[in-house]
C-alpha cells in the first residue's frame, strides 16, 4: 500500500521539494509513497482569500482562522482517511524516532503547516490534532518541519533503504543509543589511523567495540538518552519501548 502524505500549506510549491530527489525521490517515483500538497488559501471564502486575522486579546502578528482551516482539514482527511492529523508547532511534543517509526508504520499522515503566529486553538482541539515540534527553536513556517518529518518517515518505509538492519543499528534505533563512529579508506589519513580493531576482521570484537563506543557517546553527549537507556535495561533487558502518538510511552 502506498504511504500517503497530505500537506496543508500556504506554499504548496515547496513540496515535494528536496523529497523529489535522492532516496525519497526514487521511492516517490516507485510509488512507495505519494504526496498531495493542498493550498489552505483554496478553502478561504471571501474574495480576498483571507486565511488569517488579528489575535483576540491584542498582540503582534496574525492567527490562522479556524473556519478556513477546518474546511481544509475536512478535505485533507477525506483524501487521506485513517491518517493522523499532525500540526507542526514549537508547542508540540518533540519529534523523535519513536514517533517517526509509529507514523511510518501507519497509512500516512496529514500535516498542517502553520504560518504567522500560528493556528486558532479551537480547531486544534476540534480536529484532535497531534501537536509535534521539530525542535526547541522557531521556524517561520511549518513547511521545513514537514519536510524533515516526511524525510524521516519515508526512509523507514519498506523497500526504501537498502539494508533492513541499518535502521535498527543507527542512532535512535531500537536500543535507544547514539551510533558508534564510522571510518573508511584510507586506513591512515593525515597521521590518524583507523582503530586497529576495525581492521582485525574479528566480527565479535568489532561488534563489542562498536557497542562500547555507542554507549560512551550516548553517556557523554546525551545524558537524557543515557538515563532512559539504563532505566530500560534495568526494567526490561533486551527490549526498547516504542512511543505513542499521544506522547506517552507504549505499554509493555
Ligand atoms: N508564535 C508561535 C510560537 O511562539 O509558538 C510560533 C509561530 S511560527 C513563526 C509559525 C509556524 O511555524 C508555526 O505555526 C508552526 O507551524 C511552524 N513552526 C515554527 N517553529 C516550529 C518548530 N520548532 N516545529 C514545528 N513547527 C514550527
TrEMBL record:
S-adenosyl-L-methionine binds at residue 114. It is an enzyme of class 2 (transferase). Signal peptide: none annotated. Its EC number is 2.1.1.228. The keyword tRNA processing applies. Keywords: Cytoplasm, Methyltransferase, S-adenosyl-L-methionine, Transferase, tRNA processing. GO terms for biological process: methylation. Residues 5-228 form the tRNA methyltransferase TRMD/TRM10-type domain. GO terms for molecular function: tRNA (guanine(37)-N1)-methyltransferase activity. Its main location: cytoplasm. It comes from the Bacteria. It holds the Pfam family tRNA_m1G_MT. InterPro entries: Alpha/beta_knot_MTases (IPR029028), tRNA_m1G_MeTrfase_C_sf (IPR023148), tRNA_m1G_MeTrfase_TrmD (IPR002649), tRNA_m1G_MTases_N (IPR029026), tRNA_MeTrfase_TRMD/TRM10 (IPR016009). It catalyses: guanosine(37) in tRNA + S-adenosyl-L-methionine = N(1)-methylguanosine(37) in tRNA + S-adenosyl-L-homocysteine + H(+). Belongs to the RNA methyltransferase TrmD family. Specifically methylates guanosine-37 in various tRNAs. Homodimer. This is tRNA (guanine-N(1)-)-methyltransferase. It comes from Falsiroseomonas frigidaquae.
Amino acid at each position: 500500500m502506498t504511504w500517503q502524505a497530505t500537506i496543508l500549506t500556504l506554499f504548496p510549491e515547496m513540496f515535494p521539494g528536496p523529497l523529489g530527489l535522492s532516496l525519497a525521490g526514487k521511492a516517490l517515483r516507485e510509488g512507495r509513497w505519494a504526496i498531495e500538497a493542498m493550498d489552505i488559501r483554496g478553502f478561504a471564502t471571501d474574495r480576498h482569500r483571507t486565511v488569517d486575522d488579528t489575535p483576540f486579546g491584542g498582540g503582534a502578528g496574525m492567527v490562522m482562522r479556524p473556519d478556513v482551516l477546518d474546511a481544509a482539514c475536512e478535505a485533507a482527511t477525506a483524501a487521506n482517511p485513517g491518517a493522523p492529523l499532525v500540526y507542526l508547532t514549537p508547542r508540540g511534543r518533540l519529534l523523535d524516532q519513536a514517533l517517526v517509526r509509529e507514523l511510518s508504520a501507519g497509512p500516512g499522515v496529514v500535516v498542517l503547516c502553520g504560518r504567522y503566529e500560528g493556528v486558532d486553538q479551537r480547531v486544534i482541539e476540534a480536529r484532535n490534532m497531534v501537536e509535534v515540534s521539530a525542535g526547541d527553536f522557531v521556524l517561520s513556517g511549518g513547511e521545513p518541519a514537514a519536510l524533515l518529518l516526511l524525510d524521516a518517515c519515508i526512509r523507514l518505509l519498506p523497500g526504501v533503504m537498502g539494508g533492513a538492519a541499518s535502521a535498527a543499528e543507527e542512532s535512535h534505533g531500537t536500543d535507544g543509543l547514539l551510533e558508534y563512529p564510522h571510518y573508511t579508506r584510507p586506513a591512515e589519513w593525515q597521521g590518524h589511523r583507523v582503530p586497529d580493531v576495525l581492521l582485525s576482521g574479528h566480527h565479535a570484537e568489532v561488534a563489542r567495540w562498536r557497542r562500547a563506543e555507542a554507549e560512551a557517546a550516548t553517556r557523554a553527549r546525551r545524558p537524557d538518552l543515557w538515563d532512559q537507556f539504563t532505566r530500560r535495561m534495568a526494567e526490561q533487558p533486551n527490549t526498547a519501548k516504542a512511543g505513542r502518538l499521544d506522547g506517552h510511552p507504549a505499554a509493555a
